[in-house]
Amino acid sequence: MRSAVLVFPGSNCDRDLAVALERVTGQAPEMVWHRETALPDGIDLIGVPGGFSYGDYLRSGAMAARSPIMTAVVEAASRGTPVLGICNGFQVLTEAGLLPGALMRNANLTFVCKDADLTVVNNQTLFTSGYEAGEAITIPVAHHDGNYQADAETLARLEGEGRVAFRYACTVNGSANDIAGIVNAGGNVLGMMPHPERAAEAAHGNEDGRRLFESLLGALQSA
Amino acid sequence: MKARVLVTLKSGVLDPQGKAIHHALEGLGFPGINDVRAGKLIELDLADGVEDSAIEEMCRKLLANTVIENFKIERLG
C-alpha cells in the first residue's frame, strides 16, 4: 500500500503519521511538499496531518487548503482515493470543501489536550471496519479549534447518511452533536480531530488508533 | 490605495470569543449589552487599479470562510 503524507510549513504531526503508516503498512509514505502540484503515481492513501499549518494564521487550515498540492488532492479524492485528515488535516479538508461544515474555536476557548473517549458510530467505512459499531475507544486530542459546526440541514444529512464516524462520549469542545469525525458522501474522505497516530503502538500506552490504520490497510489490500 | 476587509461570523453561528468578551464587559460592570460578536479586520495595501471584483475574489477564495463568515469590503481612498 503506497501512501502519501502532505507536508505543510508549521505542521508538527506529519512525521508521527508517517511513522504510524510505516509501522502498519510496512512501507514508508512519500512525504509530499505543499508546493508540489502533483502526487506521486500510484498513491493508495493521502494523509493530511495534524499540527498548525501556517501557524493557524487567518483560520486553521485555511492557507494549507489553498496550497498548490491541494488541487491534486481534491482531484484524487473525487476519483475515490482515500484521504485521511487528522486534526489540522480535518480543518484543511473542510476549508478545501472536501468535507462540509467548519471547525471553530473550542466552545470553552481553551486548548484541549487529553485522552478523549469516543464512540465508533459507523464501522462500515474504509477507516473504521476494524472497530465494532458502538464500540468505546480512547484516542488523544490536542486542539484549539475542534468545535465542529454545520447548519442544521447538513447535520441532519450527516447523521441520516451514517457519515458520523466518531462521536465524543462526553463534550470535549462544543462540537455539534459531539461529532469527532465525519466522512464525505463517497465514504473515501475521513476528517477527525482525535489523533489515531498517537495511539498506534504499545509504547504509546494505547493502541486504539492503530486499528484505524489496519482497517485502511485491510480495505485497500482487498480492493 | 487601501482597502479594509471586515470578516464577521454569520448570524446564528456560535461565537465563543464574542461570548467571552460579553461576559468580561459585564464583569467590568457595563450594563445594557445585548450581545457581542467578534470579527477580523484585514487591511490590504493595493496598487492603483485593483478592481472591487478582485478584492471580492480574494475574500471568497481565502480571507473569509463563506460557510460560516460574511465579509464587507471598505475602500479607504
From TrEMBL, chain A:
The lineage of its organism: Bacteria, Pseudomonadati, Pseudomonadota, Alphaproteobacteria, Sphingomonadales. InterPro entries: Class_I_gatase-like (IPR029062), PRibForGlyAmidine_synth_PurQ (IPR010075). This is Phosphoribosylformylglycinamidine synthase subunit PurQ. Pathway: Purine metabolism; IMP biosynthesis via de novo pathway; 5-amino-1-(5-phospho-D-ribosyl)imidazole from N(2)-formyl-N(1)-(5-phospho-D-ribosyl)glycinamide: step 1/2. SUPFAM superfamilies: Class I glutamine amidotransferase-like (SSF52317). It is found in: Cytoplasm. Part of the FGAM synthase complex composed of 1 PurL, 1 PurQ and 2 PurS subunits. The active site is at C87 (nucleophile), H195, E197. It comes from Sphingomonas swuensis. It comes from the Bacteria.
